[in-house]
Amino acid sequence: MVQGDDSVCCTNHLKGLYDLPRKHMTLAPSNLLLRFSEVCCPCHSQTDQEREDFFDVTMDASQEVPMSQRFQASMVLSGVGDALGYYHGRWEFCNSGKTIHKELEQLGGLKKIVVALPKWNVSDDTVMHLATAEALAEWGCESPDNDKTRLFELLARKYISCMNDMNGRAPGMTCVNSTRLLSSSYQIPFNPRGGGCGAAMRAMCIGLRFPRPEDIDDLVAVGVESGRMTHHHPTGFLGSFAAALFVSYAIQGKPVKSWGAAMLSELHVCQEYLMKSGHCVEENIRTMNNGYFRDAWTKYLQLRGILDGTSEPTFPNVYGVAERDDFVKSVSFDGWGGASGHDAPMIAYDALLGCGNDWAELCSRSMFHSGDSDSTGVIAAACYGAMNGFTGVPENLFRHLEYRDRLLNAGKALYLLTHTDGVITLADIDKGDQPESPGPPPDTGDLDQLKSMVSEGQDQTVVESSEEPGAGASSL
Ligand SMILES: [Mg+2]
Prior knowledge:
Elements: H1 13-16, E1 25-27, E2 39-41, E3 44-45, H2 48-54, H3 67-86, H4 97-106, H5 124-139, H6 149-162, H7 173-179, H8 204-209, H9 216-227, H10 234-252, H11 259-265, H12 267-277, H13 281-290, H14 292-304, H15 321-330, H16 343-355, H17 359-366, H18 373-388, H19 404-419, E4 422-424, H20 447-455
Parallel strand pairs: 1-4
Antiparallel strand pairs: 2-3
Helix pairs in contact: 3-18, 3-19, 5-6, 5-19, 9-10, 9-12, 10-16, 10-18, 12-13, 16-17, 16-18, 17-18
Bound molecules: magnesium ion.
């Protein structure tokens, strides 16, 4: 697994990343399992103790976080952001940030909540994000002629399949209805009402698969094409592009204040891809030229004073929970902030700009507000993990997260695909049809007991729905 001279010690991956030439992986036929228990990075085998140490988030914040951890944290924390923002539908569909913060306080705050089944399941966002990531991992490499047809077919199959795992997760109707069209082709008709956030909420891992500046064409192709498999409208699939791009910027270490302007400067690449693809070109170009996505982002960046990509962002002097609720609503398409392709990444980005790398503040701004809080939380947390690893995140929030191991495996696979050379196999990654749920644990905060249950792999249960009718209005 170690890859010769340019495969550096895991503590130096960050330093070595951009020195590496771009390499293509070869995906072996199937069953050399690449389990999390076997390696933590390409350089080291991993013991149980090392696995525990991997989650040691007590490290000095100034210490360099290994790039392998940043990839895995991006995946795992995205699930945390989703589960916290969702809270079994209670907080996703709560229209008051003040109410959510009050209930959070009654639960003991972020340091007391144990994010685990049955109370804190992940929602549709994570299930579809895993589908994207596992398709990317299974695809593995680019074909010699850069034909992505097999990847797109894989993505379509994963999206269809993951709909069997939506009980209690409030899937958006656009995703539900569009995946019914995917069985015959990964290309669905243009949808004038396909501007919801369901494409953006599942795209972050595309930025992990194509993390380098020179990967922009691939990131655009996969971001746009995977997005319009369900949300075939520029507002929808440009949200997918933006979420993926922001994670790639996080991996690159690009200053957060520059992300919005840089994203706008790459929109022409999306337009070029749309024309080259030959699918529904006229509708897409006409709608994109109407400029809703670009105009909304330009207006927002002007509001923060960062349209130039270099200035420091400015926020109102008083910018508490109530004021942020007003902001979330103000940038929305129809009043529910974060429910569209343009404002889900926008609200996540605003939280990243304002949190100063403080995890609790990021949660407050991106997951506990009046809008579509799981979809803004899933994007913001993915970016946080890509920048900081697990640093600063209480372990009770991620250690027992539903699908934690699948998220870790996917992050590891994407790391290996982008940082190593040679043959890896990923059969254990592709378990989308048989969800693994490490719970439900007892309704207790006793971490030792929870650890024991998870390690014994008990109770492979998927929670039943407790949603009210109509809750599926998420991810429009
Ligand atoms: Mg959701």
